[in-house]
Amino acid sequence: MLAAAQYIIPPLVGALIGYSTNWIAIKMLFRPHRPIFVFNYQLPFTPGLIPKEQKRLAKAIGATIAENLINPETLKATLLSAETKGKLDNAINDFFGKLCRTDETLQAMILQYVEEEELDDTRKTVEKALAAMIHERLACSELGDTIAELSIEHVKKSLGTGMTTVISIIPGLLDSLKRFIATNVNLFLKSSSQEVVENLTDQQIEQLLQTPVSEIVSLHSDQLSAVRRQLLLLYDKLVEHQLPQILRGLDIASVVEKRINDMSIVEAEGIVMSIVSREFQAICLLGAILGAMIGIINIFF
After folding, report:
1. What is the tens place of the pLDDT at every residue in 254-271?
2. DSSP conformation letters of 240-278
3. What is the pTM of this model?
């Protein structure tokens, strides 16, 4: 019995020691979470390695991710790949297909993305801007002269040659009438056209908002292919030229560093263990195997 124990106990003890030391070493990566003091003396290896070096590790991990994982070259290769662009093209086609089939009005679709108050404010701003622009053009256009000229020509055609000749006998009658029309029309355009234009603009915008989206799309169906191509070109240009600037603005390294620093040690430990728990278990088992082997060697040497 004792002879058998001499061959069994050393490997068992070696395996236990190997497993235990590796298990303790892994636990000491995170634990203890805080420094431990005895008589104002901080015990060695407290806190654990990762809590102690959290800020340095956060900075290093952030820099590594920004430089080697989420960098312009890597993202460009992914975003401009044939697979990604194919998915984008399919998504655009699906979107246009839904627009062609939907019964929603333009207003209902817009309200899915913005608040009603925001839509009303935007609508009023657009109406006033359009009315002001059209009013300014009309006020400076001397449109009254053109209307007066066309009106006199219309009168002449309506009355016929004979009557026109009779009217022409009265000196300056047609010219006076033309000036009267031109003056009053130009005065109206300068003083009152903005209100009229605002009312017309409001009516047209309201009509457009209440139009089904499918009807709007069907009126421009021949242009959908061109729009799709332009969207894909815009996507290419955005990724090619703006991506580096976007990433600099995001500052991925700082975002990752801050997130890690904001984590509690318990949260960080849970994340790491969920990823590499099997690998840590394998390390412990490897320690047990090495310990057992050393125990077996000690039996014979």
Report:
1. 999 999 999 988 898 899
2. IIIHHHHHHHHTHHHHHHHHHHHS-HHHHHHHHHHHHHH
3. 0.62
